[in-house]
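Worked problem 6 (solution included).
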Amino acid sequence: MRILRTSGRGTPVALEAIAGLTDRRNASYECVLPQARRIVDAVRRGGNAALLRLRGKLDGIPSQSPLRISEEELRTAWDRTPEPLRQALKTAAKNIRGFATRQLPRDFDLKPARGAVTGQRVIPVASAGCYVPSGRYPLPSTLLMTVIPAQVAGVERIVVVSPRPAKETLAAAALLGVKEFYRIGGAHAVAALAYGTESIPRVDKIVGPGNAWVTAAKKLVAFDCAIDMLAGPTEIVVTSEDGDPAAIAADLVAQAEHDPDAVAIFITSQAALAKAVTAEVKQRMRGNKVARQSITHRGAAIVTRSADEARDLTNRIAPEHLTVDSAADLAWVRNAGSVFIGRWSAQPLGDYVSGPNHTLPTSGLARTRGGLSVLDFVKLVTIQEYTEEGIRRLGPAAIRLANAEGLVGHAEAIGARGTHE
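Solution. The predicted structure is:
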């Protein structure tokens, strides 16, 4: 893990690296956009036949294998799950559900004037597709993180897709009562969810992380089917002035093991702490091939001139995961997907059991949105109701504004109800 300094002789190298961090893009999916477009178009035109052909070619699943995973297979997976893991899944599900429930917005009504009522109604989307990767690692946690907020929102039809779901993922689906689960993945799965086939009705929104092909397909269908976000490689930043080197290094390695392209950064104004953290990282990544690849190519400890510079740089990077020293640091945090406070708040707790969602914005998207939540599965529909007295009270102001904009018909629509300026 290299050490970069924003002052001294190494400044040009550090500034170049920082520029890449603060203006990074998830370019991996852009490389496969043309091929992904062909896959999406094939499924859109060819339906089940194209989907099964692509599933066999790209996922290695025989065409005679059923698309839909039966509820019996899901129940069997749950029955065969060891009790300690069952309890862990239940604990995670309980905390995720509790957090999502608190996030759910509420209906309300206001009375801006006598005889006028405005309000909001929270309405779930009718259907949602949850993509659960099944590549390098089995990810039952991602199934919990995508399905539970949809359930809390009240989504009537929830569809899960995964090309080679592990038995743990099937068990998690059984725990949540998932009814519709398809053994498909990649860009062809996204296309099936977005446009529908003879066997898979289309959904209103697609959520969940995936590889470059999944991300490219989500971008291609985004104007026809809502998506949550375009996910890039995992990111971690730890910004600390007096943290524990072992704990910091452990978190950096933990997130780096997700993907060889993961970004793992430590930021501090304390040179001695940076040196201690890099030494710990070197020890901890030795037996972890993926983390070693990631940190060797994309990891860094950045030594700044001051704590204020470290904080400014952190917000400029806008990381997916951020660890800070204390709750007082929340006063300066502006851009982060999820924030972990203090030495005991190991980031993997948030990946599994804390409750906040682990599907988080990457590639700087934390500047504009937070992680996946129950809000991704609802619509905030506003309502307005006037009585005769209400339109008399507020109508004249609306007429003046309409006339000021030159929209005569707007003014006349109010005047037609007996109200005038």
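Discussion: Residues 322 and 339 are 5 Å apart (CA to CA).
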